[in-house]
Amino acid sequence: MELGASRHDDDDFAAKLALVVAERVEIVSFTFGCPQGEVVARLREAGCDVWVTVTNPDEAIQAQAAGANALVVQGFEAGGHRGYFSDDLDSQDIGLLVALRLVAHRVDLPLVAAGGIADGASVAAALCAGAAAAQVGTALMLTPEAGTSAPHRAALASPGVTRLTRAFSGRQARGIVNRFMEEHSGQAPIAYPEVHHLTTPIRTAAREAGDPQAINLWAGQAYSLAQEAPAAEVVRRLGAEARDAARQLDRRLGLAAR
To answer: Which of 51, 185, 203, 246 has its CA 20 to 30 A from that of 17?
Structure first.
């Protein structure tokens, strides 16, 4: 297997921006950084709502200043890439509930909670902590609609632990620990997307071979709660469980006040 060419690119950012402006996409969400004010202004002029992923209060303040309509607050528990504006060695990692409370005290924007949310009780907890909505990722990865590869699905259905690594892409991301992560995390540089392009052929070949030990098994800390069911069923279940959790909390608080 030959490694891919290590190169830097912006993933056709300008073309994507032009497309969403032309199509007047209702919501345009950014991660890995804060869009410039003129980019936000261009999108809002086209009728788009602009959402920005943040991981701490300082990023939230910056996104609000740039003109964001809403913030996706990503907790440390989240699977996949961390949404830091800058992936440095001293990047701050905060759990979702703490991040929601800290951000809510610093900015006046709708907050969308993300990270480790895989059941209705977690949705209810995020709403109680100040979120206007909850965003799920790993909870949907076993649905038939998801593009999850067969070896990735098998790993999600098996016991394991998650960890942050730069081994696959050069940027911190949470996945289920496997051989590739254990062997290369210690030496992986901060170099995204260069490392991503470097490892792409390895990961592609491993998926085709059904080998879970050499692919990025992105998953949040609560991945064991994911269920094999249609996406609509998963969403309905989360909503029903969240409402039930809220009713139980209301009863418990009512009893405590007596």
So the answer is: 203
Domain assignment present for residue 1? The answer is no
pLDDT at 257 over 70: no
Percent of the chain at pLDDT > 70 equals: 99
Spatial distance between the Cα atoms of 194 and 149, rounded to a whole number of angstroms: 23
Residue burial 225-253, b: 16+ Cβ < 10 Å; e: rest: ebeeeeeeebeeebeebbeebbeeeeeee
pLDDT at 258: 65
Tens-digit pLDDT profile for residues 153-209: 999 999 999 999 999 999 999 999 999 999 999 999 999 999 999 999 999 999 999
Q: What is the domain extent for residue 76?
A: 11-136+229-258
> CB within 8 A of 69, min separation 6: which ones?
44, 49, 50, 51, 109, 110
Full-model pTM? 0.94
User: Given a cut of 80, is residue 256 above it in pLDDT?
Assistant: no
Same domain, residue pair 90 and 155: no
Q: Are residues 121 and 72 in the same domain?
A: yes
Please answer whether residues 139 and 238 qualify as being in contact, where contact means their C-beta atoms are separated by less than 8 angstroms.
yes
Phi, psi values for residue 110, rounded to 5°: -60, 140
Q: Please tell me whether residues 127 and 155 are part of one structural domain.
A: no
Q: Are 174 and 78 in contact (CB under 8 A)?
A: yes
Tell me the three state secondary structure of residue 199. Answer: helix
Tell me how far apart the alpha carbons of residues 104 and 73 are, in angstroms, rounded to a whole number. 10
149 CB burial (10 A radius; 0-12, 13-18, 19+): middle
